[in-house]
Amino acid sequence: MSEVSEMERTLSIIKPDAVARGLEGEVNALLEAGGLRVVARRGLRLTEDQAREFYAVHRERPFYGDLVRYMTSGDVVVQVLEGEGAVLRNREIMGATDPAEAGEGTIRRLFGESIERNVVHGSDSLENARAEIAFFFSESELK
Ligand code: CMP
Description:
Layout: E1 7-14, H1 16-20, H2 24-33, E2 37-44, H3 48-54, H4 64-71, E3 76-84, H5 86-94, H6 107-111, E4 120-122, H7 126-136
Antiparallel strand pairs: 1-3, 1-4, 2-3
Bound molecules: adenosine-3',5'-cyclic-monophosphate.
């Protein structure tokens, strides 16, 4: 009997250097080819406060300051992806955090330059996906 995954939503961020390199179309083509649909999206520049809060879980890590500086260095695209098992699916399509460890054909392997410039962020659990989506989108934007 095959396992049926639940329909889920997850948050995806296309990071500053990827937006600047014009990779949005290629990234979203890979996400869509993997069975995910973009149901809401917005381009914006994160403020320092927003970046600090969004990545608060990493605040004790040595890379936190650089991460906040990088994520506020240019425009990002925040988007909500929907599909069966979307949280895990998105993470599979993105590949490992470090592009050097990401599998063949994944977004980070194809386009990532370093563990910091790794092209995309994706929620790591359904619980975090709900919180991260609510961080950027109101109910009325999510039909
Ligand atoms: P992301 O999925 O956006 O979540 C936190 C980010 O911190 C991660 O992707 C990386 O881009 C970034 N980062 C920078 N340095 C490190 C590191 N040494 N270990 C893990 N994440 C790092």
